[in-house]
Design brief:
This protein is an alpha/beta fold. About 45% of the residues lie in helices and about 10% in strands. The protein folds into 2 domains: about 40 residues, no CATH class; about 290 residues, TIM Barrel (Alpha-Beta Barrel).
């Protein structure tokens, strides 16, 4: 974060004027600690020198949440307060998911930031003009936010691809780099994006995003770790050496699984398929150990981080992390 932004956010100039030198020094040290823990760029977070938990044996965890459909954000705040105890390195906030316009307001971002959470808002470019995009990303930076996840976004029926300024995520990454100092995350797809002709083609597109200025890769959710390990090897051969954060989604229902596998390329291992077939009415509990073992294996294999798609629920994620920390 630029120091002038930091000073303005926390009223440091006023404190400097009103306090004695000793008081000011103590106050400054407290702010520096806050800054270190909650306002870090992606390259700093995943450098290997920082662990949000304070224990390098524990994984770097992050959480994704989305704007509540009923606009009642108080319940989401409660879930975030529960998840905060796991010291997430960041919380990502979705933007216009599935081609829609549902997004967090500026006031929402301020309120979530005030929970002392390091934020990474998502941003999709397919439904906005260049002037609107510049206004938004600059406003994000002015809030003192360090990171952004740059996505093309889903192209819905009402969007004419010929009428938009940015058609691909690498173009958005390049634009953000030219207009801000934001640290940029991008999406990776261990089994290939559903629109890609092949995984090889998809990795070529990923390389374009990386070359444009990305700092970290957050993967789509997956349940087959072997697909993830193969993906890591493939992108390394393509010359991509950024941190790759594994996308994890605890299983809440059969409907959730069916929806996700219909929208994206996600392989279900036979073990998980058998659990779903055997316990369709209790899948939330029945599949828990599967996802826990998935996470533990990734940690044992030195994954750069675990990014949990929470669906705005803390219960299963908390249970997983409690068991990882006990057994890890």
């Amino acid at each position: 974060m630029r120091i002038d932004t930091y000073i303005n956010l926390y009223g440091l100039r006023k404190v400097e004027k009103d306090c004695t030198s000793l008081h000011f020094f103590v106050y400054l040290m407290g702010l520096c600690s806050l800054w270190y823990n909650f306002f870090m760029e992606l390259s700093e977070i995943y450098s290997g020198a920082f662990s949000g938990t304070g224990n390098r044996n524990c994984p770097k965890v992050s959480f994704e949440v989305y704007p509540p459909k009923n606009s009642n954000i108080s319940n989401l705040f409660e879930e975030l307060r529960i998840l905060k105890k796991y010291n997430p390195v960041l919380v990502s906030l979705t933007y216009g998911a599935n081609g829609g316009l549902n997004r967090f307001s500026t006031e929402d971002l301020k309120s979530i930031r005030d929970l002392d959470l390091n934020l990474m808002p998502h941003f999709t470019c397919v439904s906005m003009l260049k002037s609107e995009i510049e206004k938004y990303i600059v406003s994000i930076e002015n809030l003192g936010i360090e990171n952004i996840l740059a996505l093309r976004g889903d192209i819905s029926d009402y969007i004419d691809i010929n009428d938009i300024d940015f058609k691909h995520a690498n173009e958005l990454v390049d634009f953000i780099v030219s207009k801000t100092t934001l640290s940029i995350g991008v999406a990776g797809y261990p089994e290939g994006h559903i629109e890609s002709m092949s995984l090889e083609d998809d990795i070529k597109y990923l390389k374009q995003k990386v070359d444009a200025g990305a700092s970290a890769i957050f993967t789509q959710l997956f349940y087959d770790n072997n697909k993830f390990y193969d993906y890591i090897e493939r992108i390394k051969k393509a010359g991509i050496n950024l941190p790759v954060i594994a996308g994890i989604m605890p299983v809440r229902s059969v409907e959730q699984i069916n929806k996700m596998t219909s929208l994206a390329r996600i392989t279900l291992p036979n073990k998980l398929k058998n659990i779903i077939e055997k316990y369709p009415d209790d899948i939330k509990n029945a599949a828990f150990d599967f996802v826990l073992e998935q996470c533990q294996e990734l940690i044992n294999n030195k994954v750069d981080g675990l990014h949990f798609y929470t669906l705005n629920h803390s219960d299963l994620v908390s249970k997983i992390l409690d068991n990882i920390y006990i057994g890890g």
